[in-house]
Amino acid sequence: MLTQRRPRLSWAKRFAVLVAAVSSVLSVSVLYSPAANAAVFNSCNISGCSAAASANSTWSSLGYPTSRGWVNWPGGRCSFAGGEFYNNDGQLPSGDTFYEYDVYPRGCGAHRDAYRIVVDSNTGAVWYSPNHYTDFYQL
Hints:
Blueprint: H1 11-31, E1 39-41, H2 49-61, E2 69-73, E3 77-85, E4 98-102, E5 116-120, E6 126-129, E7 135-138
Parallel strand pairs: 1-7
Antiparallel strand pairs: 2-3, 3-4, 4-5, 5-6, 6-7
């Protein structure tokens, strides 16, 4: 029985393939980074805005906790305070300090979804993001 050997790639060709693969991955992550293409709207009139406003009211009554973790929520559920939102892509006003909070309560420790509100601790302005920081709607 004859076995065929695959031709070996030279080190230079292997390196070129590696560089091409890494470049491809990096360009895809840059081109499709949702935060880099975020849209910011000065009002909120989409589905979920009323739930975000309700969540904001509850977070406000709890004093907008600034540390990251689960918080007891009315009705025996929990919601997650995400800590500081760094605004790394500059979608929101620069120079301010922001904190993020989940919109929908759930059981403590449960999987988090993509719905967030972000509160500007300097001005009190609140934004709703239904898609984990791809878009922001001011409440």
